[in-house]
Design goal:
10 helices, Rossmann fold, eight-stranded mixed beta sheet, alpha/beta
């Protein structure tokens, strides 16, 4: 692994620029939008509050285990995390509840934060208060080169569209905004990736993706594309620091590059597409 001297871009073994990139896929939450910033802490807090304890359980170890699992499922629809949590509760002899019960409680807690942040934007805080640093400049740069940009999120699609509009990001993507479905059997990121390649008639080698979850990076690499891990340390937005657990999981998923945010966009785009860009 190497980090360039002038930027926080970590270059993983085997990386080569791709001048032939034509289509770029972005995850949304944590990759472009910060409206749901802190969602892992909200989810983890709920899990720790509800989960029955075993005798003399090591709380620090339990916290670390749950945190790792929460991030490992990042990129899938949230119901998958709730299914696993419901299994944990049952394994420990807790009250049997459907995953949808936990999903509803988590959604209620998360929506409080989203409503407060959305209101701040409407009251004049400005959309960039809740956009990953440098993301708008990167989108301008890629859009200006004529690349076709997509949003692909596990969050339910109506919310993704609404939030992309609120953050004034929707214009970069036209109608190419794809989100989850209430029926999880009708949506997966792999299904959308496959559809993009099929409908656009392109090979995977022309695909570039940005994400903060293992799912989108893994699928991109399976298809032969280029994958950039956005491993922000969300405890302090704009710090330029990488979250080490995210970094490890995203490298394991096949990341070609690791960045903390997009403030390095001036160096990042030529690195990805070739020095002549």
């Amino acid at each position: 692994m190497t980090v360039t001297a002038a930027t926080p871009i970590e270059i993983c073994p085997g990386f080569d620029p791709r001048p032939g990139i034509t289509h770029v896929v972005f995850d949304f939450d944590g990759t472009l939008s910060l409206l749901r910033h802190g969602w892992p802490d909200i989810m983890l807090g709920m899990f720790l509050e509800i989960l029955p304890r075993r005798t003399a359980e090591d709380e620090a170890a339990l916290h670390a285990e749950l945190h790792h699992e929460v991030l490992a499922y990042n990129g899938r629809q949230t119901i998958h995390q709730m299914v696993r949590f419901a299994e944990r509760v049952t394994e420990r002899g807790g009250q049997l509840r459907e995953p949808q019960f936990y999903l509803a409680e988590y959604t209620l807690r998360l929506e409080r934060a989203i409503r407060a942040r959305s209101q701040r934007i409407r009251e004049g805080a400005g959309p960039d208060s809740f956009v990953v640093p440098g993301a708008r400049a990167l989108l301008e740069r890629l859009h200006g080169r004529g690349l076709k940009l997509y949003i692909l999120s596990g969050t339910l699609e109506p919310y993704v569209r609404q939030e992309a509009a609120l953050l004034e990001l929707a214009r970069f993507f036209d109608d190419r905004i794809h989100g989850g479905h209430e029926d999880p059997t009708r949506f997966s990121k792999q299904m959308v990736f496959d559809r993009i390649l099929r409908e656009e008639g392109i090979p995977g080698a022309q695909l570039l993706s940005f994400g903060d979850g293992p799912v989108e990076l893994h699928h991109t690499k399976e298809l032969g594309g280029l994958a950039v891990a956005v491993a922000s340390d969300e405890t302090e937005i704009g710090s330029g620091r990488v979250h080490e657990l995210k970094r490890a999981q995203l490298i394991a998923a096949g990341a070609d590059l690791v960045i903390p945010d997009y403030e390095c966009h001036e160096q990042l785009v030529p690195l990805l597409l070739g020095a002549s860009v």
